[in-house]
């Protein structure tokens, strides 16, 4: 893993009426932008400005690991592209962490949320059975467990914005690298975000035939098959198809029925076709599909029996249950999810820069039943039934004017819509066979933005950075919670809460900074930037109208200083930063008391909050022969400056005082990876050890049970391969010490405690063959 640095969207009538108007504005702006050929860019990716293509190359070089990857042979052109990209990350005035596809495979990273374990300052947890991971960077994200909300982190799949967690389910296949940018983004691509961005880039088609085959077998009868094949169809058309399928038994067992939960049945396919139009233009067509038929995990409810006056094991698992024991009973649990989409990326290289355009659309259908309360009785089981559509377009020009002024100018627009019904089954709680609350809704979001990013060389070693963005967001919501069986008011189907409204939000954001080259390969930088996250609605079934209401936009001002250094001929890299974030109206999850003597999670604002901290990461490559070391450390101090004791008049289960800790901000976290290789005759044996650790953290405010354990995991891996790297055989163990920390816990609707536990020890073998 190389720790260097780099690589958001309304159902109300008002939104619907404005879509055509906004798209017309977008087309007009795009037309005016494309008439500015002098503002073209000079890099061949969506990264930061680089030198003029005909000028002297960038004089800062970052460490590059020149080992053969399993996906394709390494040509001099490949090496130059990788070196150029890594150099750009290294010289960027901001913190960026990069993991290669090879490193993801070595660390057995199979889903986007697992990236967080090896990236400083990043957390990711599942707040439900798996399809709604919550991402946070430096404590900035969105604490919501409902699938309708997008966080303060921009997730991009091959440059296309994925606004909702469900859209990146299963897409971690055939990956080139994962790039995590920190701090407010949106000044050189995509959508404005407060916390940062995660860009997942797949391996692109090339003019060489080749590929690989993977097969793995691991704990709980889990089989994994993967392949990728690259085929040059003609001299100007190249195709790459990637496939991944994982199927395995669940690791959880029901106390009474011994049924398994947490089973995997995940299929993903991606086909990329590259059309070389001429020596300056190319087009990339991306078609992808995901299907998930796994069995959701169940949380454990540790005191539901005691709260309800029952013997341990009646509806819960009791306070001392074994880590893999759950109590689901006859509750319906299952997953049926399908998604797919298409995108087109066009690039044209001018002698003064490059023009890029990315357009895509994605669809996702989710029909999932969760035993969300962790109890065998229906206290708050959930049925997630929704359909997503998300479309986005980004185009930009990058150029280098006079070799001292680097300019990016671009425009972004996106539109997404969710139609769904989220149902909470509560028969046991109210003692009635059918006692259900259902939120039937439609939500639409429209987002547009125009951005400019500049880097000016003041002196040979000093650069001034200035960027600005104007954004317009419009979000609408139509729907609310229905008392399906008349439990609360005696009228079946009556609305307990209802909204039919929309809100819009125009916003200017910007960034200024300085970057100073101390010596070649070593930089100091400082920046001030601001970002925002649009207002949002809470779509879970809630019995009080206040819990459904609109939450105002979140604004953040970020101050950061840092250093990046590459030493000893790129064998040692060090990156460190200190930052200070100031929030206004931070959106966060609270536990509030609802009518009917129940509690519920809901979203609300903290008027003022602050996060301060620092990060340090380092890579040592071959300083000791055949040994690679890399590690990271992060510190966070995240506090609510303002006290909160209610949401729209609803009292919190536990008041939030000033200087209370914020959710998803562990005070300390660190990771370390060591790899050592030794030649034995014609073969090479490689040993790898990894360790990750994150401090405990809050997951919701006002909830005495909403706190995780300290989470740690040790992994070991041994590989055997011929020196040609034609094939690799490996055995591995993840979570070798078999830790069972709680990764997400909360107070249920009956005031009992439910928790999700980390995946137990996992032992496996995998075979990898290059062709």
Automatic annotation (TrEMBL):
Transmembrane segments: none annotated. It is found in: Cell outer membrane. Residues 299-735 form the TonB-dependent receptor-like beta-barrel domain. GO terms for biological process: iron ion transport. SUPFAM superfamilies: Porins. Belongs to the TonB-dependent receptor family. This is Ligand-gated channel. It comes from Acetobacter indonesiensis.
């Amino acid at each position: 893993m190389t720790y260097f640095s780099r690589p958001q969207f309304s159902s109300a009538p008002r939104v619907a009426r404005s879509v055509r108007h906004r798209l017309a504005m977008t087309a007009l702006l795009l037309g005016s932008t494309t008439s500015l050929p002098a503002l073209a860019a000079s890099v061949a990716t969506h990264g930061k400005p680089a030198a003029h293509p005909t000028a002297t190359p960038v004089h800062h070089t970052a460490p590059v690991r020149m080992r053969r990857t399993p996906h394709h042979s390494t040509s001099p052109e490949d090496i130059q592209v990788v070196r150029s990209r890594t150099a750009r990350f290294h010289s960027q005035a901001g913190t960026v962490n990069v993991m290669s596809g090879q490193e993801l495979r070595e660390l057995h990273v199979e889903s986007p949320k697992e990236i967080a374990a090896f990236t400083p300052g990043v957390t990711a947890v599942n707040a439900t059975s798996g399809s709604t991971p919550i991402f946070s960077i430096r404590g900035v994200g969105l604490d919501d467990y409902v699938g309708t909300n997008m966080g303060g982190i921009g997730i991009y799949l091959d440059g296309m914005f994925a606004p909702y967690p469900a859209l990146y389910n299963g897409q971690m296949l055939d990956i080139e690298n994962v790039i995590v940018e920190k701090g407010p983004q949106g000044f050189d691509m995509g959508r404005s975000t407060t916390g940062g961005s995660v860009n997942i880039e797949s391996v692109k088609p090339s003019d060489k035939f080749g590929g690989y085959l993977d097969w793995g077998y691991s704990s709980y009868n889990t089989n994994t098959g993967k392949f990728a094949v690259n085929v040059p169809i003609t001299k100007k058309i190249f195709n790459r198809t990637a496939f991944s399928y994982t199927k395995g038994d669940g690791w959880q067992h029901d106390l009474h029925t011994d049924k398994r939960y947490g089973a995997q049945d995940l299929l993903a396919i991606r086909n990329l076709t590259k059309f070389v139009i001429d020596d300056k233009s190319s087009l990339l067509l991306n078609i992808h599909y995901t299907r998930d038929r796994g069995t959701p995990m169940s949380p454990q409810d540790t005191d539901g029996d005691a709260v309800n006056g029952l013997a341990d094991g009646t509806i819960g698992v009791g306070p001392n249950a074994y880590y893999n024991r759950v109590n689901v009973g006859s509750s319906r649990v299952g997953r049926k999810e399908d998604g797919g989409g298409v995108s087109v990326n066009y690039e044209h290289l001018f002698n003064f820069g490059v023009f890029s355009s990315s357009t895509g659309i994605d669809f996702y259908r989710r029909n999932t039943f969760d035993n969300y309360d962790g109890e065998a009785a229906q206290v708050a089981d959930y049925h997630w039934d929704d359909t997503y559509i998300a479309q986005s377009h980004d185009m930009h020009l990058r150029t280098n004017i006079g070799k001292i002024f680097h300019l990016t100018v671009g425009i972004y627009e996106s539109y997404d819509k969710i139609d769904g019904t989220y149902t909470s089954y509560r028969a046991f709680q109210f003692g009635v066979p059918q006692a259900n609350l259902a939120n039937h809704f439609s939500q639409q979001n429209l987002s547009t933005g125009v951005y400019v990013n500049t880097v000016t060389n003041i002196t040979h070693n000093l650069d001034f950075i200035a960027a600005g963005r104007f954004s317009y967001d419009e979000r609408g919501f139509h729907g609310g919670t229905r008392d399906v069986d008349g439990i609360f008011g005696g009228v079946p189907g009556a609305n307990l809460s209802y909204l039919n409204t929309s809100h819009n939000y125009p916003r200017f954001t910007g960034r200024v900074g300085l970057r100073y080259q101390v010596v070649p390969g070593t930089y100091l930088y400082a920046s001030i930037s601001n970002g925002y996250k649009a207002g949002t609605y809470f779509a879970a079934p809630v019995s009080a109208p206040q819990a459904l209401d609109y939450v105002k936009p979140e604004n953040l001002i970020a101050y950061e200083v840092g250093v990046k250094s590459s030493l000893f001929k790129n064998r040692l890299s060090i990156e460190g930063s200190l930052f200070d974030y100031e929030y206004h109206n931070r959106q966060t999850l609270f536990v509030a008391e609802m009518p009917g003597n129940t509690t519920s999670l809901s979203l609300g604002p903290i008027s003022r909050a602050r996060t301060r901290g620092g990060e340090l990461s380092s890579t040592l490559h071959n300083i000791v022969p055949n040994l690679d070391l890399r590690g990271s450390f992060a510190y966070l101090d995240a506090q609510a400056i303002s006290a909160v004791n209610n949401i729209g008049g609803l009292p919190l289960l536990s008041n939030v005082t000033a200087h209370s800790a914020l959710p998803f901000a562990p005070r300390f976290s660190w990771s370390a990876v060591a790899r050592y290789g030794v030649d034995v005759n014609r073969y090479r044996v490689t040993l790898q050890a990894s360790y990750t650790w994150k401090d405990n953290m809050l997951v919701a405010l006002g909830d005495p049970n909403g706190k995780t354990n300290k989470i740690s995991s040790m992994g070991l891996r041994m590989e055997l391969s011929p020196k040609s790297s034609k094939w690799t055989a490996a055995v591995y163990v993840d979570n070798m010490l078999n830790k069972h920390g709680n990764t997400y816990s909360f107070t249920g609707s009956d005031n009992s405690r439910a928790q999700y536990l980390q995946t137990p020890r996992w032992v496996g073998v995998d075979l990898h063959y290059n062709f």
